[in-house]
Specification:
heterotrimer, A mainly alpha, B mainly alpha, C alpha+beta, A: mainly alpha, B: MetI-like fold, 0% strand, flat
Chain lengths: 341, 302, 530
């Protein structure tokens, strides 16, 4: 026992050290890419017709005359003080921008993942239970199509059908414009904010806008989760204890959900975590099609303008989410499955 | 018939007489298993047709599909133009056919770059262990934590837009999972008897890695690669959609959707035809990958 | 696929039950969809982008202005009248009495003088429009000053035609800014630069309520505007980058106007009885520029051959139809002193002969750099096919603007296909860019000048450009600009191809949107909805 504590400490500090290393690597690579990119951040500020004099003035202001490692160290120094710098494109502090754009992505990714969980898992179980019969084939094909379709193309088609032709959902954007800026952004997640403020019209409107892009992103999550659920379930259903349970006369639904599924849950958590993390990166393509002001679009726009503070800030947030969710799912894994400990 | 039977007999003989026969037998049995999986066969057929179409392109197209014909733009699908014409009057069917070469070029080149890099980093890390493992895996994690499309975009933006650079960027963002898989395999292999035996015989580390470890990791890497093909095609299409991939007038499918998307409402065929092409081909790779995994790697599920 | 659709259907049905989408925008609100990703600042001393050029025109009254009721004649804005001295070097403006800023502060002569001084002292990109008159941060306080509470006197030290100076006083940099308000937000002597980036302090028809980058801009009506209160209480510019999305929103009635529809989408929307299409001729021109530093493109006959190779009409009649017309002079048609002749059409034998004379009978290879957004890739591909007819093999590279312009400014291109719009309504604005390159050395770095970027300079055109700039007699000045345009149609690096005709699609119940020839001549104040 006396030995266990220090070794745990070593382990924790090891994890922290490797995390720090990961982020230094992440920012260093991003920074280097930014400096070799031909897009000119000065022109993003002064416009293409600027005279050389104006150009040089801004060039110096941005500190671009210094060697790249000096610029990088400077950035790290600021970062340690919690300062992500100011964005060129929005003229706002990057931290504020992220507080505005990230919740939009969070909202979308969360709903998409929930869709994947609540539809994908039953689909996967259904397929596994009916292995080789038609429900299995249907689920597999749906899974594969969801996995294979170019998402921007699917998004455009869906917009055309469900918004333009059928009018079942609201169009591109997060809200109808006349609802804009009515609710105070407490969480930044519109449906939550609207619900908190008791503005139910806005709540409905936000959901009407959210449902289509979330479904499109959700098809990907759904496909992946259904597919993995199916294979995990198949694995379990062929185990001996299932056979024993069936022989004992345990009802079939209990065999499936009570026995087999419980053991699958552990593996599924990792899969769901991965899916959620990848959706939190923000989907540039979906966000473009649906005029959704999310983090993916923010990073992309900033990248095209070589607005490196914004790109770095966005990358860090996305990286934190990725690492954080992975650690969380590891933790859950250990909680749910004592064998792993 | 007689020959066939003998061949079959040879392939299914219970006791193989030579190394070659044993190897052929293994492949043949895998093939029989694969053949029994209709979904996988469909996948194989799709990919085979893609290759056939790409090879036969000069004979099955009426034009090089690059030259604009402004008088004949945006014609609906019909007997003259099966898939219609695009915004500059080019035959969409011909463009998709020529585009199949680009798709193959992309997946081929990405595989050629990704497999050696991923394999090398993975088996070195797994086999050597220690600090080499730590450093290499930390590097892999950095690339895993990067938003994939964003890293690819940044790289293309840095290298300049174009097909080759897009491929390079995709490769640089795709290798990390391969390294992880190869490492896991190498870890299990490193203490196995035959590796120890080889080491005893004085085979160099490099020799062990290339001749003994790498070949055994190949099957899981290939399965994963096939499953990733769809992702690669979609990423390339995404880059094309953002104007960072192949340059006009190259008929890359993603770029065709990108430039054609404004026609979706009135001339649906312009973006839809290449969209279906991408869908079918990535479906093909996914089906094939699923089948291959069932055959080579039944435990890993999916 | 079936199940996915079923799933989507049921989800959609669920939303429908929840309330679903609501059509039609409120009567007192004018909602337009536009690509507003170009916005980086709202400060009139720095604004140089198309979208903000238009926005600040509705927020700030300028010293001189074009009014939506009459886009042809320059009239006083904040200035009630002006007087030009005999030598043409000094102009005295009389400020309109009784004007108020949105803050309630009165508009004083001191505000007017300070606004110009501020532009010169901050020295941001558009400052050259007025610093070319000889104003510097050191001398501007004495050359631009309020002589009493209602008069401002400006003095130029260079030889510029007073007509040109007055035109420049209608540019964005001549916006009159609320000095008291702005200076109350000053930080470390920045003249309020940091604050004014995302706020407004004007006396125009609207004030800025919110700007959320890449999302939305909201303007609020100035109820006390000098021409009476605007037709709507609020104007909203919503960022919708995809033209297809704009079209869907418009057809559903979720917006009142779509600003970035493509020619083919306009054609598709024409059948909709709720929607009207308005065309507004714009000053934006589309041109190709050949780098004179290139061994082949440096030869006059080769560029001349390019002019004969391009098939202008088939482009203008197909994928550009309705939104671009053929135009071949550097100053846009429909404006004072514009040359509207069309000397070139596709003539392949003529082009081939010229190429042969230049020593390129077998053609050569080059790269066309252009922008990624429509219609540039389409034009580039059509031009590529045109040039092939003369044996010239062109490769196309499409780039985002921020990546393209550095190449152009560093003279690293062969051919650039791009657009240009005048900074203010005087031919000097374009002549200065296209025809006047006083120092062609690489070290001179006249990177704002198009002729310099293409490594081209010509004594005759330089001389004529300066002469026209300084000419006091309007009739003579006009003729000089016509001559200069004709000269550049025959020599120089430019193949000028098209002029834009902006097509705006609106719901029929909305009227009164005015869009003039220049990018910042767009007025919201007469917009009304039934």
């Amino acid at each position: 026992m006396g030995l266990a504590l220090p070794s745990k400490l070593v382990k924790v500090s090891g994890v922290i050290a490797s995390l720090i290393l990961t982020f230094i690597g992440l920012t260093a690579i991003t920074f280097t890419i930014g400096r070799v990119m031909p897009a000119d951040p000065v022109l993003a500020i002064v416009g293409d017709r600027a005279s050389q004099e104006v150009y040089d003035q801004v060039f110096l202001q941005l500190g671009l005359d210094q060697p790249i490692y000096v610029q990088y160290l400077k950035y790290l120094g600021q970062l340690l003080q919690g300062d992500l710098g100011t964005s060129i494109m929005t003229a706002q502090p990057v931290a504020e921008d992220i507080l505005r754009f990230f919740p939009a992505t969070l909202e979308l990714a969360t709903v998409a993942t929930l869709l994947g969980i609540f539809v994908g898992i039953p689909m996967g179980v259904l397929a596994a239970v009916n292995q080789g019969r038609w429900p299995d084939h249907v689920v597999r094909i749906i899974g594969l199509i969801g996995y294979s379709a170019p998402i921007f193309w699917l998004g455009m088609i869906a917009l055309l059908i469900f918004y333009a032709n059928l009018g079942w959902v609201a169009g591109p954007g997060r809200l109808d414009v006349y609802y804009d800026s009515i609710v105070d952004p407490v969480t930044g997640i519109l449906i939550l904010d609207a619900a908190l403020a008791g503005e139910w019209d806005i709540f409905h409107n936000a959901i009407a806008h959210l449902i289509l892009p979330a479904s499109i992103l959700g098809t990907f999550a759904l496909a992946y989760i259904a597919r993995m659920t199916r294979s995990f379930m198949l694995d379990q259903l062929s185990q001996e204890y299932i056979l024993t349970a069936r022989v004992k006369g345990v009802p079939e639904w209990q065999v499936i959900w009570g026995h087999a599924f419980r053991n699958v849950l552990v593996q599924l958590i990792t899969i769901i975590g991965l899916t959620y993390a990848s959706l939190l990166e923000g989907s540039v393509l979906t966000e473009t099609i649906f005029s959704w002001p999310g983090i993916g679009l923010y990073i992309t726009n900033s990248l095209f303008n070589n607005d490196m503070n914004a790109v770095l800030g966005g990358t860090i947030v996305v990286g934190v989410c990725f690492v954080g969710i992975n650690m969380l799912s590891d933790l859950l894994y250990k909680l749910v499955d004592p064998r792993v400990r | 018939m007689q020959a066939n039977l003998t061949l079959r007999g040879w392939l299914l003989a219970e006791v193989p007489e030579s190394k070659t026969q044993a190897r052929c037998q293994r492949l043949f049995i895998s093939w029989l298993e694969f053949k029994g999986n209709p979904v996988a066969v469909v996948g194989l057929l799709i990919i085979a047709s893609l290759v056939a179409i790409a090879v036969l392109a000069p004979w099955i197209t009426a034009s090089d599909a690059l030259e604009p014909d402004l008088a004949g733009r945006l014609q609906p699908p019909g007997s003259e133009h099966w898939f219609g014409t695009d915004e500059l009057g080019r035959d969409i069917r011909d463009r998709i056919i020529w585009g199949s070469r680009i798709t193959l070029y992309i997946v081929g080149l990405v595989s050629v770059i990704v497999v050696p890099i991923g394999l090398m980093i993975g088996i070195v890390a797994g086999y050597m262990g220690g600090w080499i493992d730590t450093v290499l895996m930390r590097l892999t994690d950095i690339f895993l934590a990067f938003p994939r499309l964003i890293l690819a975009m940044a790289l293309v933006a840095a290298l300049g837009p174009g097909l080759e650079n897009a491929v390079l960027a995709i490769a640089l963002t795709t290798w990390s999972p391969f390294a992880r898989i190869a490492r896991a395999e190498a870890l299990t292999l490193r203490n196995s008897d035959f590796i120890l035996a080889a080491r005893m015989q004085g085979v160099s580390t490099a020799g062990i890695l290339t001749r003994h470890v790498a070949p055994l990791c190949m099957s899981s890497v290939i399965v994963r690669l096939t499953l990733d093909m769809a992702g690669i095609i979609l990423t390339a299409a995404g880059l094309g959609f953002l104007g960072l991939g192949a340059q006009p007038p190259t008929p890359e499918w993603g770029a065709m959707i990108s430039l054609g998307r404004q026609y979706l409402i009135d001339q649906w065929w312009v973006p839809t035809m290449p969209g279906i092409a991408i869908l079918v081909v990535s479906l093909g790779f996914n089906l094939l990958g699923d089948g291959l995994r069932d055959v080579f790697d039944p435990k890993s599920g999916g | 696929m079936k199940t996915i659709r079923l799933l989507l259907l049921s989800l959609a049905a669920a939303t429908l039950a929840l309330g679903g989408a609501q059509a039609a925008t409120p009567k007192n609100m004018f909602v337009q969809a536009k690509d507003i990703a170009d916005i980086i600042t709202m400060d009139p001393a720095e604004v140089f982008e198309l979208t903000t050029g238009e926005i600040i025109a509705n927020i700030y009254d300028r010293i001189m202005m074009f009014e939506p009721e009459d886009l042809q004649n320059l009239v006083g804005g904040v200035a009630e009248s002006y007087e030009v001295s005999k030598d043409g070097k000094t102009i005295t403006f009389k400020i309109r009495p009784g004007l108020k800023f949105h803050s309630g502060n009165p508009v004083r002569a001191a505000d007017v003088a300070w606004s110009l001084q501020r532009v010169v002292k901050l020295n941001k990109t558009p400052a050259f429009i007025i610093t070319q008159f000889g104003w510097t941060p050191d001398n501007v306080d004495s050359l631009v000053k309020a002589t009493d509470s209602s008069h401002v006197q400006i003095t130029i030290t260079e030889d510029f035609s007073p007509g040109l100076v007055l035109n420049a006083m209608s540019a964005g940099v001549a916006s009159v800014v609320d000095m008291k308000l702005v200076m109350s937000h000053e930080k470390e002597g920045d003249l309020g630069y940091d604050w004014l980036k995302s706020n407004s302090a004007g006396s125009g028809a609207f004030s800025l309520k919110t700007w959320k980058a890449n999302e939305i801009v909201t303007l609020e009506a100035n109820q006390d505007y000098r021409h009476g209160k605007p037709g709507v209480d609020r104007v909203i510019l919503r960022h919708v980058a995809e033209p297809s999305s704009q079209r869907l929103l418009l057809e559903k009635g979720d917006i009142d106007m779509a600003r970035n529809l493509t020619p083919d989408q306009i054609k598709g929307i024409m059948g909709n009885s709720d929607i009207a299409i308005d065309g507004h001729p714009k000053g934006t021109i589309v041109y190709m520029a050949a780098n004179a530093g290139h061994p082949a493109l440096g030869k006059e006959k080769v560029v001349q051959a390019l002019r004969w190779l391009v098939d202008y009409n088939s482009m203008a009649n197909s994928f550009l139809a309705g939104q671009f017309v053929v135009h071949q002079a550097f100053w846009p048609a429909g404006l004072w002193a514009s040359l509207e002749t069309i000397p070139y059409k596709q003539d392949i034998p003529k082009a081939r002969a010229l190429l042969a004379e230049a020593g390129y009978a077998d053609g050569f290879e080059l790269t066309i750099h252009t922008l990624t957004n429509s219609p540039f890739p389409e034009i580039a591909q059509a031009v590529q096919a045109n040039l092939a007819k003369g044996g010239i093999k062109a490769n196309i590279v499409t780039l985002e603007g921020k990546t393209l312009w550095p190449k152009y400014r560093a003279r690293e291109h062969d051919i650039i296909l791009a657009r240009w719009s005048p900074d203010y309504v005087d031919p000097h604005s374009n002549a200065d860019a296209f025809a006047h390159n006083p120092d062609n050395r690489l070290e001179a770095k006249l990177t704002g000048v198009l002729a310099w970027r293409n490594a081209w300079a010509d004594d005759a055109s330089n001389k004529l450009a300066v002469m026209a700039r300084n000419e006091l007699d309007l009739g003579k000045r006009k003729q000089q600009y016509l001559d200069l345009q004709a000269m550049l149609q025959k020599k120089g690096p430019f193949v000028i191809m098209f002029q834009q005709n902006e097509q705006v699609a609106r719901r029929k119940n909305l009227r009164g949107f005015v869009s003039g020839s220049n990018f910042d001549l767009v007025f919201y104040r007469n917009v009304t909805k039934q």
